[in-house]
Amino acid sequence: MSLKYLHTMVRVTDIDASLDFYCNKLGLEEVHRIDAETGRFTLVFLSAPGDPHAQIELTHNWDPKTYEGGRNFGHLAYQVDDIYAACQRLIDGGVTIHRPPRDGRMAFVRSPDEISVELLQVGDALPPKEPWASMPNVGMW
Amino acid sequence: MSLKYLHTMVRVTDIDASLDFYCNKLGLEEVHRIDAETGRFTLVFLSAPGDPHAQIELTHNWDPKTYEGGRNFGHLAYQVDDIYAACQRLIDGGVTIHRPPRDGRMAFVRSPDEISVELLQVGDALPPKEPWASMPNVGMW
Fold it and tell me: DSSP label at A136?
């Protein structure tokens, strides 16, 4: 039997804030969008550039709702080629680095709806470097 | 800047029950496992056969915990080549089909830790067929 991963769906309260986080700050690209007038929701499919087959689906219900987190879901993980540059771009965009890459290898941030996102350095860890090496954890991730 | 999707992490209370669901019943394969004695946790990486670059990471903490769900996470979605066969295999394994594929196109089930999993028929919907066409929804998904 054939089986293929399509996407992980997350619900978002503010589609503009979510696209700003996932696209402008994290680096994903919008690949497809569906506006469902009757159901009053919008679906936006995002993927890493050049990797359209593994996507995040953002579901935005037009009628305001808030979405709490739960512990059965952990995080979305992405590999980056320079974890310091990726974290700097997030910081410049006002995103809190909950788990800074003190080890040159791993960092955690959260989306506007508290979805935890892990960043992992491709290959070997980068050499430890300030300000990252002495940057404290912030809250949970 | 390069960015690549690695995995979606979910926490599991019972690793055997989870592997039975994700592998035996859903059809994923174990590709990698890490037993961390010091941290007292096990990580198991699963992927669809032939698609090792999009994975689920199961995190199992050895000290018992329970993990509630939250609404900011929606579901994991997989494409299947025969949605009726996929659902039959899940039913045969004792899994509740929360949203049966009445339309020959879409179904939802839940993992032992209540992670919602969407199954989508590849290509066009299959022709409606009993017992699926008249099977009622069960709870939430």
Answer: P
